[in-house]
């Protein structure tokens, strides 16, 4: 029902590692938090095939499975996870109001963990051929490229990690990077360079994505020589970074020029009772473990905030 109103003590926006860790801590503080999943349970981590650097899983764990474990653990202590999407926040009075697909939530404290979305190349043909050969998620779409030729754009950890994942399916994986040096960790670079299916095209950008019904080729340009070439491929995976999901908070919370929410060392935003954690507030580390840590810290601080509020309003 569109006008249904629900009152909660703690509302968490987003159900990635930050949101579900915040929910776990808030639930254990008996605040009965509600988590709104937004578009996707598990956040970006759920798009990662295998997470090998989250402590406690020496053999690694699938992104989806880790998200499910986070959820199960938070629910065990009373967190409610709702498949609902927030559209608007009203911070003009307490409790704060959040309008969602299902109605309106009124909350004493808000923890924002809405994460970030993959950046696009913004070249002709990219949008039209998304889902028809162009993808931003190897875990979701890698399987479609069994014995096919795949190109990857990017030079960071994501590009390398996902390129290596796609080698399971594709006949060849060509990583196209705009420079001749990579940001990716030395270990990932070593694995990729030693992989027999991997090829590299350096100092090169994609200027156009070409195809009628489906992707057929890329137009490439060497940024040093200016030489233009065509590169036939069945798949194109783009991993060139992310943009924070903070549009809803524009003009309402302080943010950086790039749109990341500003928080202090207690995960407090510019408004009392509003906290942020994970990639929405972290352009630097962006790891599952750091996001989970930020989520826990945000919930601890939200608990302290609510306790102080209660003490201030209770009769002496
Ligand atoms: P990133 O580190 O920001 O790398 C983005 C890459 O895309 C860079 O190589 C960049 O080139 C390139 N790029 C950016 N805009 C481009 C454009 N318009 N056209 C062509 N290339 C473009 O992003 P990420 O790889 O998604 O990683 C984000 C963060 O998550 C990092 O901190 C990373 O360490 C972390 N991460 C960690 C793991 C792991 O530890 N296993 C896995 C995934 C991600 P330049 O190098 O020239 O700028």
Q: If you had to describe this structure to a student in words, what would you say it looks like?
A:
The chain is an alpha/beta fold. It has 2 domains: 2-117 and 242-313, 3-Layer(bba) Sandwich (FAD/NAD(P)-binding domain); 120-238, FAD/NAD(P)-binding domain (3-Layer(bba) Sandwich). It has 6 helices and 19 strands. The chain has helices at residues 17-28, 63-76, 138-141, 157-166, 186-194, 288-313, and strands at 4-13, 34-36, 50-51, 61-62, 80-82, 86-90, 96-100, 103-112, 116-118, 134-135, 149-153, 172-176, 198-201, 204-211, 215-222, 228-232, 235-238, 242-244, 274-276. Strands 1, 2, 5, 6, 7, 8 and 19 form a 7-stranded mixed β-sheet that branches. A 5-stranded parallel β-sheet has the order 10-17-11-12-13. A 3-stranded antiparallel β-sheet has the order 14-15-16, with no helix packed on it. β14 (204-211) and β15 (215-222) form a beta hairpin. α1 runs parallel beside α2 (63-76), α1 runs parallel beside α6 and α4 runs parallel beside α5. The longest helix is centred in the last third of the chain and has 26 residues, at 288-313. The chain is elongated and about 75 Å long. It starts with a strand and ends with a helix. NADP nicotinamide-adenine-dinucleotide phosphate (NAP) binds at residues 53, 121, 153-159, 161, 178-179, 183, 205, 239-241, 286.
């Amino acid at each position: 029902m569109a006008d249904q109103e629900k009152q909660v003590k703690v509302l968490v926006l987003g159900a990635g590692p930050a949101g579900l860790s915040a929910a776990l801590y808030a639930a254990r503080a008996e605040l009965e938090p509600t988590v709104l999943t937004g578009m996707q349970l598990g956040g970006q981590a759920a798009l990662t095939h295998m997470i090998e650097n989250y402590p406690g899983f020496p053999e690694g764990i699938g992104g989806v499975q880790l998200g499910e474990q986070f959820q199960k653990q938070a629910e065990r202590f009373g967190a409610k996870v709702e498949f609902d999407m927030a559209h608007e926040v009203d911070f003009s009075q307490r409790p704060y109001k959040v309008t969602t697909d299902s109605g309106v939530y009124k909350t004493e404290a808000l923890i924002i963990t809405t994460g970030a979305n993959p950046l696009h190349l913004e070249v002709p043909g990219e949008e039209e051929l998304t889902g028809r050969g162009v993808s931003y998620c190897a875990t979701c779409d890698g399987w479609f490229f069994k014995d096919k030729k795949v190109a990857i754009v990017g030079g960071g950890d994501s590009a390398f990690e996902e390129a290596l994942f796609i080698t399971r399916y594709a006949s060849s994986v060509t990583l196209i990077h705009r420079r001749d040096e990579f940001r990716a960790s030395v270990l990932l670079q070593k694995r990729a360079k030693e992989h027999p299916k991997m090829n590299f095209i350096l100092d090169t950008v994609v200027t156009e994505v070409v195809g009628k019904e489906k992707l057929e080729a890329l137009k490439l340009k060497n940024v040093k020589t200016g030489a233009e070439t065509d590169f036939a491929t069945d798949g194109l995976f783009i991993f060139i970074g992310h943009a924070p999901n903070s549009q809803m908070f524009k003009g309402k919370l302080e943010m950086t020029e790039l749109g990341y929410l500003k928080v202090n060392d207690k995960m407090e935003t510019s408004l009392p009772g509003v906290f942020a954690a994970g990639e929405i507030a972290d352009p630097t580390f962006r790891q599952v473990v750091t996001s989970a840590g930020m989520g826990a810290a945000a919930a601890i601080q939200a608990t302290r905030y609510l306790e102080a509020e209660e003490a201030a309003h209770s009769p002496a």
